[in-house]
C-alpha cells in the first residue's frame, strides 16, 4: 500500500508528445503491462506516428498528466519519486478517446486520503489546459473514477450522466490458463485475418457493434474504422455459409491495443442472425491462442461488462477471475462515467 507517513511532495508533470511521456513513464508502465494496456498501447501508437512524421506532435492532440509522489529519505540524501497516476487524453479519427486514468496501485489502496489531493491537482491542471467539453467520459478503476467525477463536476460544472456508460471487469488469459478448443471447426467454416475483400462486411459489423454503446458510428466512420483494423492486421473473422449457401462473415474479434508482451481484445461481436452457434467462443479462443503463440504475447487482456453473458464464454476460453472464480490482484472492477454538455468522441 502507498505510504502516507513522510510528508510527501505531490506534483504533476505535463507531456504533449508520446516520446516525452514515455521517457518518464515507460519503465513504470512496463512493470504493470497488463493493467496499463490502454494508456501504454495508445502512447506507443502515438509515438510511432510522431516518429513517422518527424515533426514532434505530428498534428496529434494528445495530452498526458503524470502524478508523482516524491519523498526524501531520513537516512540518506536520496530522493525517491514514484508515479502514482497517469491521466491520458488521446486523439483519434472520431473526436478523441475518453480520459483514461491509470493507477499504479490496486483499488484497495485507493483510499479517500490517498486519492483526494492527487486527483484534485490533476483535475485542476486539466481544467487549465483543455476545454471542459473535451472530457466526455472518464474510464479507470472505480475509486479513481468516482473521485475524479466529483472533483471535475465541481471544477468544470459538467454534470455526470445519470447512468454510467460502462461498468466492467478486467481479465486476462495466459498460456497457462488458456483452455483448448472444445470442438472442431464445422465443415465449410473458416477463421482467418480479415482482408480488404471483407471491408464492407467488417464495416457493417463495426457499425452494429457501436450501436450497442454510447458512441455509435455512422456509415463512413465504420468504413474508416474497419479499414484501419484490416490494414493493421488487427481483426479476425469467422466465416460461414448463410441460408443461401453464400460465404458470410458471422463474427469478428479485434485486438487494436498491443505492447511488447500484452495484447488486448477490444471488440467481440456476432451479427444477430448467427448468434447462438458458439462462433464467438471459437473465434475468441482462436485469436487468444494466436496472440499468445504466434505473436508471442505473455498475456491477452479484455474487459467484460457486468452481467454480460459473454463472461461465460471468456471464462471457458481461459480468462481468469470470471464467473465467480477467485480473482487475482489484477482482476478488478473498472468504470466509465460520461458528462453532459460535452463533445463525444469514440472508443
UniProtKB/TrEMBL annotation:
Source organism of this protein record: Ceratobasidium theobromae
Gene Ontology molecular function: any one: acyltransferase activity, transferring groups other than amino-acyl groups
The entry's keywords: Transferase
Membrane-traversing stretches: none
InterPro entries, per database record: Acyl_CoA_acyltransferase, GCN5-like_dom, GNAT_dom
Protein name: GNAT family acetyltransferase
Entry keyword annotation includes Transmembrane: no
Domain of life the protein comes from: Eukaryota
Matching Pfam families: FR47
Residue intervals of the N-acetyltransferase domain: 189-347
Keyword field contains Methyltransferase: no
Amino acid at each position: 500500500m502507498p505510504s502516507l507517513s513522510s510528508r510527501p511532495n505531490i506534483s504533476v508533470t505535463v507531456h504533449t508528445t508520446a516520446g516525452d511521456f514515455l521517457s518518464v513513464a515507460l519503465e513504470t508502465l512496463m512493470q504493470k503491462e497488463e493493467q496499463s494496456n490502454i494508456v501504454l498501447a495508445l502512447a506507443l501508437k502515438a509515438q510511432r506516428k510522431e516518429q513517422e512524421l518527424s515533426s514532434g506532435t505530428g498534428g496529434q492532440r494528445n495530452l498526458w498528466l503524470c502524478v508523482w509522489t516524491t519523498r526524501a529519505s531520513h537516512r540518506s540524501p536520496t530522493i525517491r519519486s514514484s508515479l502514482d497516476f497517469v491521466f491520458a487524453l488521446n486523439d483519434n479519427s472520431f473526436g478523441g478517446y475518453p480520459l483514461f486514468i491509470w493507477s499504479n496501485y490496486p483499488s484497495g489502496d485507493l483510499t479517500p486520503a490517498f486519492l483526494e489531493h492527487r486527483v484534485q491537482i490533476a483535475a485542476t491542471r486539466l481544467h487549465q489546459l483543455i476545454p471542459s467539453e473535451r472530457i466526455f467520459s472518464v474510464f479507470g478503476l472505480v475509486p479513481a473514477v468516482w473521485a475524479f467525477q466529483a472533483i471535475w463536476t465541481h471544477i468544470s460544472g459538467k454534470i455526470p450522466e445519470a447512468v454510467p456508460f460502462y461498468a466492467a471487469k478486467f481479465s486476462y488469459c495466459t498460456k497457462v490458463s488458456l483452455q483448448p478448443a472444445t470442438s472442431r471447426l464445422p465443415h465449410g467454416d473458416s477463421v482467418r485475418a480479415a482482408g480488404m475483400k471483407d471491408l464492407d462486411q467488417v464495416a457493417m459489423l463495426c457499425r452494429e457493434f457501436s450501436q450497442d454503446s454510447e458512441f455509435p458510428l455512422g456509415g463512413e466512420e465504420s468504413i474508416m474504422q474497419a479499414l484501419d483494423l484490416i490494414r493493421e492486421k488487427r481483426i479476425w473473422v469467422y466465416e460461414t455459409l448463410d441460408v443461401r449457401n453464400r460465404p458470410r462473415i458471422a463474427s469478428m474479434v479485434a485486438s487494436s491495443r498491443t505492447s511488447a508482451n500484452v495484447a488486448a481484445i477490444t471488440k467481440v461481436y456476432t451479427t444477430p442472425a448467427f448468434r447462438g452457434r458458439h462462433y464467438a467462443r471459437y473465434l475468441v479462443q482462436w485469436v487468444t491462442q494466436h496472440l499468445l503463440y504466434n505473436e508471442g504475447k505473455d498475456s491477452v487482456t479484455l474487459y467484460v461488462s457486468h452481467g454480460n453473458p459473454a463472461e461465460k464464454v471468456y471464462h471457458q476460453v481461459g480468462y481468469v477471475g470470471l464467473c465467480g472464480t477467485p480473482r487475482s490482484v489484477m482482476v478488478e472492477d473498472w468504470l466509465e462515467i460520461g458528462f453532459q454538455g460535452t463533445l463525444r468522441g469514440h472508443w
